[in-house]
Amino acid sequence: MNYQVVVQKASRGYCELHPSEPAVIVKYQVHATVLRADGTEAANGAKDVTKLIYFTNLADATDLKRVAKDAISKCAYLDPNRADELEQLLNAIRNRQKSSLQYRPSSAMRPLAATPIKMAKVDAKMSELPHYRSLLYSSLEDKILGSEMILQLCQKRAYMSQILRSEPIISGLCRLLSEDETRNLDLKINITRIFAMLSQLAAAPAIFAKNRIGGYLLQEISMEQQRYEKLKGELTSKQNNAKGDSTETEAYRRKSVQLIRKQDLFIAAAFEILFMLAKDVATQTKMVKKDIISILCRCAERSNPEVQIAALKFLLVLSVYVENMERFVDAGAPEKIMRVLDHQRSTTVCELALKLLFNFSLCPALRKGIIKKNGAKKIVSSLENPRTTDFAARLLYSLSIDRRNRRDMQCLELCEAVGRLVTRNVDKTLNHYLVSLAINLAFSKTCAADMIRTMNILRIMESAMETQNVHLVKLITTLLKYMDTFPAGLKECIIKLLPDENTEATSVFNLEALITLSVALEVGLIMESDFLPTWSVDIELISICQKLKKPPELFALVVFMGALASQPKSCQILCDASMMDWLCQKLAEVNDVQEEIAVQIGYALLKFVQYEPARLRVMEYPRITKILTDRTQQCSDTARALFEDLLFHLSSSSQEIHEAWKMERFRQYNGQWLRAIEHRREEGDDGNLYLDDFNDGSDEMDLVTKYGLNDLSDEMDEDEEDVEDMIERYSARSASRLSFRS
């Protein structure tokens, strides 16, 4: 059976004074009747109900009679005949508020130079929370008192959840934060500290987002930062214009310092709240759109370490997202963070700044900004600080990866500092980023010379051999190219790098050691006479060749062979061991991706062909002309020039190779020409494009330029009529248009 409940409030309620709060307790009855479907009464009852009506800001000039009438007109369940009674209660509330003035603290807007009055501390009680809430709607001093009492309650974990769920408290604090015309810093500090404590609760983000607390805080931080910059400008102007008497300037400075200290307290607490809210990606995106990155960068330049740490932590989180990089560029972040790093005194600030700059170095635009502001020189002090060496080395290494930046990083202080640190820590746990940075810098002759002056090369070499450190060996290899004089004992150390029967020939260290030996041979540090009597070149190299499995192993061995080829006796030994055939075979097997290996093989062969027996062995290798000609078509310009020089040396000694080279080039370029014709036929309007249609010289030259056929600049011999006939038959071009390099 369906029932209907009818609820009716009694309109004859009465009121009482609340014992502690500025409110009136209204008591009335609610009558409920249960009706059946036919409208007859099934049951009825009554219940006593109470309601609070708060009255704030009851000043002496307030017309209490009018306030009482307005309250009765808006409260339908209050007896209209009790207006006089309500007026008396309002008078009692006003008197109570006057008596509470003895507990009010001093205002934060008093002159900063004045000494604050110390008041007795009042312990906050949770039962008086409604009273504290009412103070938020009173005078400025009452607002400060109310916020301080709520802040005391928030310091107890048991009360935090109840305060967070109190919507009147949260909305009142938000209203004060956004509408306070006095911009009182003490009040704002109390409010932000309350929110910072409440932000520890899981339900805080949703409630804060609902009340737009993040937006209010961003607005207030921006205004305080503008106020700070204006204050600094005025202080600087006063100091510059001060004459003999500086008393007024000193007083203004003290006032400014006190104000800035309060600003720092507010901003640090506000950043703590915003950092918590930014854990939500959607909220973080809204903050970025409101230009929080620019605000954080400006606040990071403040002198207070707490504010700097909070701002840098926030920026570090935002720098992880690629879509924010453009915002960092617009805000001039690299320049500002470099200034923070240059003037910092806190190690924590330095570490955070270096981490942030490291993230910036991964973006080309931001990396350019760091280099442009002479960032390498400013990071030297951090590099030599033991607590920040690791972060600074990572940052500098990241900047040095781009070769275009290495010229701008040529700093005497940096190179000397790197040299000292590598030598000092070579016997300890060496930072790999530091060694890698030294290697990158050593590719510059100027930087290498600066590092060599502060390095103990012999000590580094001995440590590299003892610890099998590949990075140190590579560093020595790079520095050897620019050393004018060699320290005593270095020659003996490098000779010990020669592999023997007990050496794992294909280990990473020994492969790098082969490259070091190659450089030592080229710069004249060691000669073949230093190791040939005790080291069997042919046996050891054949043994290594049999163990090769990976491209890096092949690369190192070929580099070493190229260095040995410059030594007459070693060249003869390698020739007798048929190493020429092995190199030609590997050149044919190397794919297009492994161009570096192909170039090193070509370089080694180019050295070997200077020795006549070796040249003959190379010319006898099957299809060597086709292998080299194919390489000229598959490699870069540098590699192509190398292989063409090698073909030129071989063709100058063999007419057969000379003719084969011509035919191979004809085959390759003729294929390109035919593909060009086919391409034009496919793009023709009528679909019938013939060779005789090429009457327009400009159109013809466009084809030649587009497909690279204008490289054939050498003239053919007039007596080679059979080749000219082939050209006429297959390409329909005159002999003067196509030619080969002889």
Overall description:
By secondary structure, the chain is mainly α. It folds into five domains: 4-101, no CATH class; 122-211, no CATH class; 374-490; 497-653, Serine Threonine Protein Phosphatase 5, Tetratricopeptide repeat (Alpha Horseshoe); 663-731, no CATH class. Helix content is 64%, strand content 5%. Strands 1, 2, 3 and 4 form a four-stranded antiparallel beta sheet that branches. Helix 22 crosses helix 23 (432-442) and helix 25 (457-467) packs antiparallel against helix 26.
Broad shape: elongated
Average pLDDT rating: 78
Radius of gyration from CA coordinates:
43 Å
The percent range for strand residues is: under 5%
CATH architecture of the largest domain: Alpha Horseshoe
Integer count of domains: 5
Q: Whole-Å distance between the termini?
A: 113 Å
| Backbone structural class | mainly alpha
